[in-house]
Each structure stands twice: as structure tokens, then as C-alpha cells.
Automatic annotation (TrEMBL):
<dbReference type="GO" id="GO:0032259">
    <property type="term" value="P:methylation"/>
</dbReference>
<feature type="domain" description="tRNA/rRNA methyltransferase SpoU type">
    <location>
        <begin position="37"/>
        <end position="166"/>
    </location>
</feature>
<keyword id="KW-0489">Methyltransferase</keyword>
<dbReference type="Pfam" id="PF00588">
    <property type="entry name" value="SpoU_methylase"/>
</dbReference>
<dbReference type="GO" id="GO:0008168">
    <property type="term" value="F:methyltransferase activity"/>
</dbReference>
<dbReference type="InterPro" id="IPR029026">
    <property type="entry name" value="tRNA_m1G_MTases_N"/>
</dbReference>
<keyword id="KW-0808">Transferase</keyword>
<protein>
    <submittedName>
        <fullName>TrmH family RNA methyltransferase</fullName>
    </submittedName>
</protein>
<dbReference type="InterPro" id="IPR001537">
    <property type="entry name" value="SpoU_MeTrfase"/>
</dbReference>
<dbReference type="InterPro" id="IPR051259">
    <property type="entry name" value="rRNA_Methyltransferase"/>
</dbReference>
<dbReference type="InterPro" id="IPR029028">
    <property type="entry name" value="Alpha/beta_knot_MTases"/>
</dbReference>
Length: 172
């Protein structure tokens, strides 16, 4: 009797995915612009590859080291350095990008109600302890809330960012 679940071979999985890497600065960008933990950056980088997104990070030495350590794919990934987060977000918004913050806020869109991104979308992720800085909240077009039923107030940056990226990519 054969098993009810068929495991797809690696060759078949590879053939079903995109034939080449996505173009830099594609329509989805994860932006953990105020990171606290390097491990989260590696996890987000892997998610960015999975959904065809780019990662935008501050140009700090420890961030570069964390991204390099976290690149378990061992091939070049789409990572860009952002010197001044507020200026960069304002420029992206002026150029027509939608700026979404993953934050607990009034009138936030629940993750389940978030439609797939149809044009360039920046997913802003705040500091693990303090969230998105107050001065950056004005650059957001909307906030996304991830509902929780447990006692914690939030998920870590890598998990929250991954959930939102998958939803925006239309993969959930």
C-alpha cells in the first residue's frame, strides 16, 4: 500500500519555482530598519527569498555580519542598506510605494483582511522592544495588526514580518 502523502523530490520542487532570482527592488521589500537581534535578520532574509522580496536594513557593521551569517542559502540575496530610514521611507512614498507598518495601532488592518500587494509595498518592521519610532509613524499609509489570543503583546520581528510578507505575496 502506498503512502497517502507523496513527498515531492527536490528536482520537481526546483522546476516549479521561479527560473531565476527576482529583480532587485521588486514590488515587496521587508524593512526592519531599527533591528535589535541579528537572528531575526537571517530569518527574514530567508523569507524574502521564499516570497521574492528584498530586504532593506541599516548599514551597521553588526547588521551586515548578521545578514551574512543568516544567509543559509549561500548565494547572493537581495539586501540593500538604508542610511536614513525616515528619508528613505519618505522618498519611497513619494515614488508611489505603499508603506505598511506592522504595528498595534487604531484602525490597523487585520492580517487576514490584508489583500495581496499589487504594486511596490514596503513592510516596515520596528524595534523588537519599542516598535516603530513615533517619528516614522507619519510615513505609514496603513498599519497591519497580527491578532493574538495568548498573553504576549507581539510576535518577534522575524515571525511578524514573515507572516505579512507571505500574505502580501498572495501565498497565504
Amino acid at each position: 500500500m502506498s503512502p497517502a502523502i507523496r513527498v515531492r523530490p527536490r528536482r520537481e520542487l526546483t522546476a516549479a519555482r521561479r527560473p531565476r532570482a527576482h529583480r532587485c527592488w521588486g514590488h515587496l521589500v521587508a524593512a526592519p530598519l531599527w533591528p535589535m537581534h541579528g537572528a531575526n535578520l537571517g530569518t527574514l532574509l530567508r523569507t524574502c527569498d521564499a516570497v521574492g522580496a528584498c530586504l532593506a536594513v541599516p548599514p551597521w557593521r553588526w547588521v551586515d555580519e548578521a545578514v551574512a551569517r543568516g544567509n543559509t542559502l549561500r548565494r547572493p540575496s537581495c539586501v540593500h542598506r538604508v542610511g536614513n530610514p525616515l528619508s528613505w521611507l519618505a522618498a519611497e512614498r513619494s515614488a508611489g510605494a505603499q508603506i505598511l507598518g506592522v504595528e498595534l495601532a487604531e484602525e490597523a488592518v487585520r492580517l487576514a483582511d490584508l489583500p495581496p500587494a499589487r504594486h511596490r509595498t514596503i513592510v516596515v518592521l520596528g524595534h523588537e522592544a519599542t516598535g516603530i519610532p513615533a517619528e516614522a509613524l507619519d510615513t505609514l499609509d496603513a498599519a497591519v495588526e497580527i491578532p493574538m489570543v495568548g498573553t504576549g503583546l507581539s510576535l518577534n520581528v522575524a515571525v511578524a514580518g514573515s507572516l505579512v510578507l507571505y500574505k502580501l505575496a498572495g501565498l497565504l
